[in-house]
Amino acid sequence: MAQLNCPPCTPCASVCIEHQPIQTETSLDNPFHTPREPSEADIRAYQAELQTSPVGLPASEPPPYLPQRDGNSDGYPLAKRMDPIGPWATGRVDWGALSGQTGTRPVVNQYSITRYSVDEWRQRNADMIASCQSTVDQSVRVENASKNTIIRTYATADKTQNDCTQSLHVRAKNIDDLKSELNRAIAAMQEEISTMERQRRRLKQSLAVLRMPEAIANECLERRTGRPDTELIRDRPEEELIREISLISEIKAILLATLANIEQQQSDNRAIRQRMEFDWSEKKVAHENDAINCNLRNQSTNTLFKPGATRCSNEQSTEIYWEKFTRETLTMYNDCRRKSEQLRNTLDAILTNAARDLRTQADSVERALATRITCMEEIREKLEIDLRTILQRLADTEIQIGKLQVAIRNMDYGMMVVQTRLDNRNQRPRVENCRDQPQALLISEVKSLEEGTSAMNAQLKQEEAVKQELVNRRNELEREIMLKRRTIAIDHDRCQLLRSHFPSSTALSGY
Fold first, then answer.
1. Is residue 382 within 8 Å of residue 481, measured between CB atoms?
2. pTM for the complete prediction?
3. Is residue 175 part of a domain?
4. Three-state SS across 311-332?
C-alpha cells in the first residue's frame, strides 16, 4: 500500500490527484499480478513529479534539496537543533541579532559564521517551492475567478441592459399611449372651444337682435302715451306691451348671465387645453428622450461618462404621481367638456324658449292691438252714426223751434181778436153790458189762448234746451270721434307699423 504524492494543481490539470481516492496495487511477486495501463491522471502525476524531482527519483524519495524522510515526521520538521560543530572549532560562541527570532546561536570561527543547518535550508527550499506553488495556484484560481467574474458580469450587464431597454420600450409605449390620448383630448377640446365660440357669437347676436323688440315695445308704449286724456286707459295692448318689456328684460338678464357663464367656461376650456398641451409637450420630449435611450447600444458613439447621472434630483416625481397627474388632467378635461356640453345644451334651450316666448308674446301684443283697433273702429263708426243722427235731430229741432216761434206769433192775432171783441163789448151801455154767454166764451177763449201760448212757450224752451243738448252732444261726439281717430292712428299707423319689424324666431335665436 503506497500513498502517491500529489503535486500542486496546475491550470491544465482537470482532476487533482489529492482529490482522487487512494489506489492499491498488487505486488509484482504476486502471481496474480496484472499490469495496469497508465491513465491520464498517472501521466499528469508523472509530469508533475518530473517538475518537482528533475532527477527522476521516485516520489517515495524526496530530492536532496528538500527535507528528507529519515528521522522526520510526515510534515518534515527539523530533525534536531543545530549545535556547535565540535570542540576542535576555534573561536567563540556569540549572540547574534537574529538569535531571538531564529532560536539559533551562530557558531563562529576564524573563517566563517554559520547561521542555519542543512535541514533548515532544505525546509526553506520546501517552503519557498510551496509558496511559489501556492502563489501559482492562487493566480490560477484568481484567473479562473476573473474569467468567471467577467462572464457573469458581462452576462449580468447584458441581461440588465436588455431588461432596461425592454423597460424603456414599455415606458416609451406608455408615454406614447398617454401622449396619443392627450392629443385626441386636445383635438376634442379645440373642437369644443370652436363650437362654444360659435355659440358665444350666436348668443351675442341674439342679444344684439333683442335690442330691436325692446326698442319696438318701448316705442309703442311711448307712442301710446300720446293718446288723448280720455283714451289713456290701461287696455289689453298696454298690459301685453308691459308684459313683453318685462319678458324681454328677464330674457336679457338670463342671456347676459349665460354669456358670463360661457365666457368663464371658455376660459376654463382654454386653461384645460393649455394644461394638456403642456403635458403633451413634456411627454413628447420624454418620449423622444426614451426613444433615444432605447436606441443606445454599447457600440454607440454618442455615449459619455456622466458621473452625477445616478443622483436623483429633488424635483423628480414618482411613476404613480406621473400617471396620476395625467389622469387628473384627463379627468379635469372630461369634467370641463361635460360642463361645456351641458352649457351649450342649456344655451340652445334658453335661446329656443326665449325666441318662442318672445314670438308668442309678440303675437299676443299684435292680436291685442288688432282687437283694440277693431274695437276703436267700431266705436268710431258708431259715434259717427250717432253724430249723423244728432245732426239730423238738431236740424229737425231747429225747424221745430222755428215752427213753434211762428205758431206763438200767430197766436197773437187770435189774442188780439178776442181781446178786441171783449174790449168792444165792454163798451156796451149800462144794461147791455151783461155777462152773457158770448162774454163767457170770449173769456174762455182768452184763457185758452193764453194757456196755448204758455204751453207753446214752454215747449219752445224745451226745444231750445234739447237743441243745446244736441249741440253739446254733437261737440262731444265730434271730439270723441277725433280722439278715436287719433288713437286709431297711433295704434294702427305707428304701433302696428313698428310691430311689423319685429324680428323672427330664427333671428331671435341668434342665427
1. no
2. 0.63
3. yes
4. CCCCCCCCHHHHHHHHHHHHHH
Spatial contact of 506 and 209, defined as CB atoms under 8 Å apart: no
- What is the rounded CA–CA span in Å between residue 443 and residue 151? 175
* C-beta neighbour count of 210 within 10 angstroms: 21
pLDDT in tens, 448-468: 989 999 999 999 999 999 999
- Cα distance between residue 426 and residue 446, in whole Å: 15
- Helices 118-224 and 319-426 pack at an angle, to 10 degrees, of 10
Q: What is the 3-state secondary structure (H, E, C) of 225-285?
A: CCCCHHHCCCCHHHHHHHHHHHHHHHHHHHHHHHHHHHHHHHHHHHHHHHHHHHHHHHHHH
In whole angstroms, what is the distance from residue 303 CA to residue 35 CA? 67
Asked if 191 contacts 335 with a C-beta cutoff of 8 angstroms, the reply is no
Which one of 55-69, 297-311, 340-354, 427-441 scores highest in mean pLDDT? 340-354
**120 domain residue, yes or no:** no
**Cell 501556492 belongs to which residue?**
134
Q: Which residue has the cell 193764453?
A: 450
The residue-averaged pLDDT of 429-445 equals 87
How far is 98 from 77, CA to CA, in rounded Å? 20
Interior angle at CA 377, CA 376 and CA 380, nearest 5: 85
Per the CB < 8 A criterion, the answer to whether 125 and 66 are in contact is yes
**Cα torsion angle, 178, 183, 189, 192, sign:** negative
- Is residue 40, in this structure, part of any structural domain at all? no
Predicted pLDDT of residue 335:
94
Q: Which residue bears the cell 319696438?
A: 216
Domain of residue 431: give its range: 167-296+318-509
Return mean pLDDT, the chain: 81
Residue type, 105: R
Phi, psi of 79 (to 5 degrees): -70, -40
Query: What pLDDT digit, counting tens, does each position of 388-410 carry?
Result: 999 999 999 999 999 999 999 99
Number of domains making up the chain: 1
| 3-class state of residue 113 by DSSP | strand
Q: Strand ranges (DSSP E) for 149-206?
A: none
Residues 6+ apart with CB under 8 A from 23: 4
C-alpha to C-alpha distance for 216 and 499, rounded to whole angstroms: 7
Q: Which of 281, 293, 320, 93 is nearest to 179 (CA)?
A: 281
Q: Using the CB atoms, write b or e for 227-261: b if 16+ within 10 Å.
A: beeebeeebbbbebbeebbebbeebbeebeebbee
| Residue of 23, 24, 19 whose CA lies nearest to 7 | 19
| 109: nearest Cα among 140, 87, 134 | 87
Q: Which residue do the cell numbers 426613444 mark?
A: 291
Min mean pLDDT across 81-85, 167-171, 249-253, 301-305 is at 81-85
Dist CA 397 CA 467 (whole Å):
6
In a domain, 243, yes or no: yes
Contact 368, 233 (CB under 8 A): no
Pairing mode, if any, of strands 107-108 and 113-114? Answer: antiparallel
